[in-house]
Amino acid sequence: MTQDEMKLAVAQAAVEYIQPKLARDSIVGVGTGSTANFFIDELAKIKHIFEGAVASSEATAERLKGHGINVFDMNSVDQMDVYVDGADEFDGRLNLVKGGGGALTREKIVADVAKEFVCIVDESKKVDLLGLFPLPVEVIPMARSQVARELVKLDCMPVYREGFVTDNGNVILDLHGLEVEEPKELETRINNIVGVVTNGLFARRGANVILMGTPNGVETIK
Ligand SMILES: O=C(CO)[C@H](O)[C@H](O)COP(=O)(O)O
């Protein structure tokens, strides 16, 4: 089975998983990335049973609209049954690293309002300790050098994602060489640096359930 076939299988499993939870007035939070794109294409098949979606990026909004799914502004939504998104890494406690696509801040905002976060991944994303995938940090452009100097103190190497600008007009520093023993503490510590918008650790609001694609089918991890 190819990686894309596993992504499609988890996308289909996610639609099956959320379908019974949706009502006519439900809003679905939708993540960003290649796995989320498979999910959007599958979600479109049941668009008649729910109200619409909130997108975690401009790219996701475009894809949703392309399928004729209503896209709501986050500011007009005060509750959401479910948020579905991929991840770059996850551990056994359902902590995640996200933001490989640079959409981490909007993803965190949408995930935060959702009652349930369903994370869809293939088995290549599973790790014992988070940090192998460089941890993205979204930073206000004028603070980039100062934030990088602070981040070096965490025993990692911040690398500027050159030429990339987030949907919020900010830049990304990717932290190489981290071994994340205490995800919640590190998430807070990085977020407390002045000039940081947020970082890609999803530990304070991790996933509620992970649907993981494997060559033998989709595994549910709770
Ligand atoms: O956090 C993300 C984007 O900011 C994505 O969820 C993450 O990068 C996984 O992407 P993919 O499904 O393409 O592997």
UniProtKB/TrEMBL annotation:
Q: Under which pathway is this protein filed?
A: Carbohydrate degradation; pentose phosphate pathway; D-ribose 5-phosphate from D-ribulose 5-phosphate (non-oxidative stage): step 1/1
**SUPFAM superfamilies given for it?**
D-ribose-5-phosphate isomerase (RpiA), lid domain, NagB/RpiA/CoA transferase-like
Oligomeric form and interacting partners: Homodimer.
The protein's GO terms of the molecular function aspect are: ribose-5-phosphate isomerase activity
Q: What is this protein called?
A: Ribose-5-phosphate isomerase A
Report TM segments: none
* Protein role: Catalyzes the reversible conversion of ribose-5-phosphate to ribulose 5-phosphate.
Cellular component annotations (GO), alphabetically ordered:
cytosol
Stated EC number for the protein is: 5.3.1.6
Task: List the InterPro entries hit by this protein, alphabetically.
Answer: NagB/RpiA_transferase-like, Ribose5P_isomerase_typA_subgr, Ribose5P_isomerase_type_A
| Family, per entry | Belongs to the ribose 5-phosphate isomerase family.
The record's annotation in Pfam families points to: Rib_5-P_isom_A
Q: Which top EC class is given?
A: isomerase
User: Which keywords has UniProt assigned to this entry?
Assistant: Isomerase
Recorded catalytic activity of this chain's protein? aldehydo-D-ribose 5-phosphate = D-ribulose 5-phosphate
Q: Name one GO biological process term.
A: D-ribose metabolic process
UniProt keyword Isomerase present: yes
Where substrate is bound, by residue?
A: T32, G33, S34, T35, D85, G86, A87, D88, K98, G99, G100, G101, K125
The gene for this chain is rpiA
